[in-house]
Structure formats: C-alpha cells, structure tokens
Specification:
The complex is a heterodimer of chains A (269) and B (384). Chain A is an alpha/beta fold and 269 residues long. Chain A is built from ten helices and nine strands. Chain A has a six-stranded mixed beta sheet, sandwiched between helices. In chain A, α6 links the parallel β6 and β7. In chain A, α3 packs across α4 and α9 packs across α10. Chain A starts with 15 loop residues before the first strand and ends with a helix. Classes of the chains: A alpha/beta (269), B mainly alpha (384). At the A-B interface, α2, β5, α3, α4 and α6 of A face α2, α3, α6 and α11 of B.
C-alpha cells in the first residue's frame, strides 16, 4: 500500500509544496510556519483536533483562501499569482470534495457532474451527461440516482455524488474534506475502499482531511498531524503513532485508536 | 495534462485482422474518439466481422483516462475485457485496471463574553463602526462594479460564454410579473400629480398646463424612478437571496474550484437581464402615468382627450423621453450589481441572508434616488 511512502521524500518532486504557511483571522493565528508536501500517487491524511485548521489548510491549498504569508505551490504553480485563464487551467487538474458535498442544488446529479465537462471539455450535453452517469456509477451510485436532485439524497449518496463531480475532469489530485464524516460505519468503510480503488485505477493522488481513525488505518499511505499551528509530524502511520506528543498519544492510543488498530490487525491476519 | 493536450488524439486502424489502437484516449479528444470508434466498428463489420478484432494491439496508447476508457470499452466490448488480463499484455497494468474498473461500472448500465464599556464610549464606537462600514460598503461597491464591467468586456469577445438561457430566464422572472404593479402604481401617481397640478394652477387660471406637468414629470422623472424603485424592492432582494443561499451552501466555492468565474456565471446574466427589463418597465410606467393624468383631465378638468393629446404633441419634444429612458439601463445596472454584491457578502446563516437582503433593497433605492438627483441637476444645467 505504501507505494510511495516516506522514503520517496527526496527523490520525487511533490505535487503540492506548502512552505512557511501563515493563516491569521484577526488575532486568531491558525497556522504558523506550516510545511507540507503531497507526493504523486499517495493518499495523505491530515488529522488534528477540531479547530486546528485542517479545512483552512485545504482551502489555502486549492486557492479559495489567500494565506497571510508563505507559499503554496500546486503543480509547481502559485494559484493566487496566476492570471485567471492559467489559474483555471490548473484548477481543472484537481478535484475537490467539500465537507457537505456542495452539489449545485438546482441541478440534478448527472447535470452536476456534466457541468464541468460541458464548460471545460466543450462536450455536447448528451455526451457530458453520459460521462456524468458513468462517473456516478464509478463513485458507486445506482443508475436511477442520476436524475435525482441533491435535496432528495442521503448524506452518503451526496458524498458519492460529490466525489463523482470532483472526478469529472479526471483530476490528478483529489482533495477530500472529511469524506466519511456523517456516514454509517459500513458506508464509511465502503467509501474508503472506493477511494483506494479509484486511486489505484486512476493513478491520482489524494489529500484527505479526516477524523476517522478507520480511514487512517485502512487506506492512508502517510499521515500529517496538525497541532500547535503547524504540521507536527508527517510520516507513515507507525512513525506518527510513535511520536512523543500528548495529543498524538491520546489520539492513536485512546480507546477509539486502539479499537481501529486491532480491527485492522485482525483483518490483516 | 498540458503535455497531454499536445499528444496525438487516439486512432484505430484496421490492418488485416488486427486492430491497432494508438494515441491519447483522453477527455480533450472525446468527440473525435467517438467518431473514430464508430468508423472502426463500421470498418470491422465490412471486413468480415467476428474474425477481425480477435487480435488487438494496444501498445500505441500513450494516455488514457476514464472518458477515453469508456469509449475504448464501447469498441472492445465487455467480453474481450473479461479476458483482457491475458489478451492486453501490451497495455500497462494500471491502464488495464482502469479499463476493468470503468468496464465494471458500465456493465451496471448506467461566541465570546463582552465587557460592558461606558455608554458614551459605546455610542462613539458605534458611530465610528457604522461610518467605517458605510465607507467600506461604498468601496466594495465601486470595486465590484469595476469587476463586473471588466468581466462583461472580457465576455463580450467570447460569444461561446454568453449565457443567453440564464439571461432570458432572469428577464422572465424580473419583467412580466412586475408589469401590473408598475402600471397600477404609475397610473395612480399620474392621477395624483394631475390633481395637485390642477389645484395649484387653477389660481393662475392655467389649469390647461396640467397636461404639460404630467407629461414632463412622467417622461423625465417619475416613469423611470418609480419603475426603478419597484424593481429595487422586487428584484435586488431576490438576487441577494438567490446568490446568498448559494454562498451559504458553498456553491460559489464549487463554481470557483470548477474553474468558472462566479461573476460571469451569476452576475452578468442578472445585470444584462435588468438592463433589458427596466427600460421596458420604464416605458410602460411613462405611458401608464400619462394615462392616469389624462383620466383626471378628462373626468374633472374639462380637458378633452383630443386636447390632451394635441397639447402633448405640440409642447413635449422627444428630448424629454430620451432624458428619462437613458437613465433606465444605468439604474438597472446599479440595482443588479448591489443585489448581487450583497448576495456574495452573505455568510452561512439564514440570518445573514435576511440582513443582506434588507441592505440590498435600502442601498439600491438610495443609489437610484441619488443618481437621479445628480442626473436631474446635470440635465437642467445642460438645458436638455
């Protein structure tokens, strides 16, 4: 599973390079000299307590939030410095799954997925909607879901549909903001497997913000812990779990952490 | 992906009994690929069907994504793919896996405690904050207007990105339904102006000039002003609520990350729609106001309709109409831009949607009256 892992750190050019990132809201400092890399082909999980700025980090990387200081390079480019046309070209190389799905409520699912295809690939509507249905199926939705509107769907289906939309333009990086939050454990496990399958089949890199320990143990190549306004440690799960930090120890060796660990160990055996 | 765009689009060649598949099978070339596959299928059928395509050469495939895979699967067929592990040895394992993954889905058809400060200090701080907020709002409005104009110019040269459907839909929502209320309101105000005029002018024995008063007032000012104020109440609020709830639902963020411009997608169609709707409603308002005045003249001032019309024909020049109607697109733009800008300022909660909706109506009515006053001064000085 650790196809790339920590050992590649020096050899391979990272897709995302965050250096000395500072994010400040008024007097509230969320990030201070934060460094983080994402390497091709890996699934990187970002964990941290509530309010440590995991989603803020994601938003600064995808260019929705202008950092107070520091640099964020994605595919070697600084999104906020690019003229709008080139920025759009970079933006279509990554897909974002928002926490609550962020599906367009006035469009049904296949139109949601078809929209970027019509806008960017210039496909006629019929072709785009066909590909839209294909992506929805790829994300594990039944065919009849394609004509439903987001308001008619369960949380799990919304997540899947949002994943399908994030995959619409065959992105190279997939950003997932708490993909399994609000899903039942079975649905969450299936979603984890889906991400793994898609990563392997489509050769994408995944940047994942999560609270879900099961997700960490079952699919992640590398884990970055956000604490004290920076990335405390970014390494393989075993190394992170061995880090001498009270929060990390509590997180990985608390009751839930142990349960997730034994579950994975039992499955592997 | 930049490098992929430069790649040769995918091709299918039939050589004897072999299918040779090469090039980039990616989204950018989707339609070309579809055509290529249809042609190849016809070619296979002509060359004898079943035997052709037993042997498939995929070595030349340089790029493959899900869209390309879907087309390729149409060509190769599910049966072939089930054996692809043994047959497609010349295809890299991850591409084979991609084909299989896509094929598998295709088979399924498809807060904070506050320390109380002294009252006087709180009052002063309040005044300061409000002043600052008003200034910031005006600053944002100028910036947003500039952004909208710049986007409009950039969009004008790219007819492909004109959102005609969206614009027509907004014209439909803002226009026809406002006609009855605009017509009724201006008709009543027209009648009131005629009564007022008649009462004052009677003392000078100049009742007949009521006609000029009504026509002057409605062509130059009231027609456009009343229509604009009504639209500010009806439409600016609607725009704020629409965009505000999209904002609350992260839909604006989604538009951004999908590489589209929210100004182009959401603001331009609304501004353009208003620029069509308001002049039309202004024209209706002018006619209706003059009709209201005419009714009062005929019914209680002993001025016949014929007299009324001939006085208008004699005394009122086209200039008055033009002075009134040219203001309409400007007011329309201001109302639409304020409505949209307030929508973008909404943050999450339903509360915020309400506050900004109120703010957009107040601001747009204020701006319309302010601009109208400036325009009136200007036109008077110019002698128009």
């Amino acid at each position: 599973m650790t196809k790339v892992g920590a050992l590649a750190a020096d050899a391979i050019e990272p897709l995302i390079r965050v250096r000395n990132l500072v994010n400040r809201f008024g007097s509230n400092v969320v990030h201070e000299s934060l460094d983080l890399d994402l390497y091709p082909g890996e699934i990187l999980a970002v964990v941290g307590g509530s309010g440590t700025g995991k989603s803020v980090l994601l938003r600064s990387i995808v260019g929705l939030l202008r950092p107070s200081a520091g640099s964020v390079l994605i595919f070697g480019e600084d999104l906020l410095q690019l003229p709008s046309e080139e920025r759009a070209n970079v933006e279509r190389r990554f897909g974002v799954l928002f926490q609550r799905g962020a599906l367009f409520s006035s469009l049904n699912l296949q139109e949601n997925v078809a929209l970027p295809l019509i806008e960017h690939a210039g496909l006629p509507r019929a072709d785009a909607e066909y590909l839209g249905r294909l992506k929805l199926a790829l994300a594990g939705l039944p065919p009849e879901a394609a004509l439903k509107y987001p308001a008619e769907l369960s949380g799990g289906m919304i997540k899947r549909a949002a994943l399908a939309r994030a995959l619409a333009l065959d992105p190279e990086i997939l950003f997932l903001d708490e993909p399994t939050a609000g899903l039942d454990p079975i649905g969450a496990a299936a979603f984890d497997q889906l991400i793994l399958t898609l990563r392997d089949a489509l050769e994408i890199s995944v940047f994942l913000v999560t609270h879900d320990l099961d997700t960490l143990y079952s699919i992640c190549d590398r884990v970055a812990v956000l604490a004290q306004r920076r990335v405390l440690v970014a390494a393989s799960l075993d190394e992170v779990a061995a880090t001498d930090d009270p929060w990390v120890q509590e997180y990985f060796h608390g009751p839930r952490g142990r349960a997730a660990q034994t579950a994975v160990a039992a499955k592997d055996a | 992906m930049k490098s992929q765009q430069a790649l040769q689009p995918g091709r299918v060649q039939i050589e004897g009994q072999r299918l040779i598949i090469s090039g980039a099978w990616i989204l950018q070339h989707y339609q070309h690929l579809r055509a290529e596959v249809v042609a190849a299928q016809r070619g296979v059928a002509q060359a004898g069907g079943a035997e052709v395509g037993r042997s498939i050469d995929l070595g030349g495939v340089v790029a493959l994504d899900t869209a390309g895979a879907a087309v390729l699967i149409d060509l190769l067929g599910q049966d072939w793919l089930e054996q692809s592990d043994t047959l497609a040895q010349d295809l890299a394992p991850e591409r084979r896996r991609l084909l299989q993954t896509v094929a598998a889905t295709m088979s399924d058809s498809l807060i904070q405690t506050q320390r109380r400060a002294p009252l006087l200090l709180m009052f002063l701080a309040g005044v300061g904050q409000r002043t600052q907020a008003v200034l910031r709002q005006q600053w944002q409005l100028f910036g947003f207007t500039g952004l909208t104009l710049a986007t409009m110019v950039a969009t004008l040269v790219r007819p492909r990105s004109w959102r005609i459907t969206s614009m027509v839909a907004h014209i439909h929502q803002t226009g026809p339904n406002a006609v009855p209320i605009v017509a009724l309101l201006t008709f009543l105000v027209g009648a009131v102006v005629a009564f007022l005029g008649a009462t004052v002018l009677q003392d000078f024995g100049a009742t007949i000039y009521t006609v000029n008063l009504v026509a002057f007032a409605f062509l130059r000012e009231f027609g456009v002003l009343l229509a604009a104020i009504l639209l500010a109440g009806r439409t600016a609020s609607a725009f704020t609520a629409q965009i505000g709830s999209m904002k609350a639902n992260e839909e604006i963020d989604a538009i951004r990350t999908l590489g589209m411009d929210p100004i182009e997608v959401l603001v331009l169609p609304r501004v353009m729609a208003m620029c069509v709707t308001l002049p039309a409603l202004t024209f209706i308002g002018m006619l209706s106001g003059i009709a209201g005045g005419a009714l009062v003249c005929v019914a209680s001032l002993d001025i016949s309709l014929f007299q009324f019309v001939s006085i208008i024909k004699r005394d009122i020049t086209l200039t008055h109409f033009v002075v009134g109607i040219v203001k309409a697109p400007v007011f329309a733009g201001v109302i639409a831009v304020i409505g949209c800008l307030e929508g973008f300022k909404v943050s999450g909660s339903a509360q915020s949607v309400g506050e900004h909706t109120t703010s957009s109506v107040v601001q747009s009515i204020f701006m319309v009256i302010l601009l109208d006053a400036i325009a009136a001064l200007f036109f008077m000085q110019m002698g128009w």
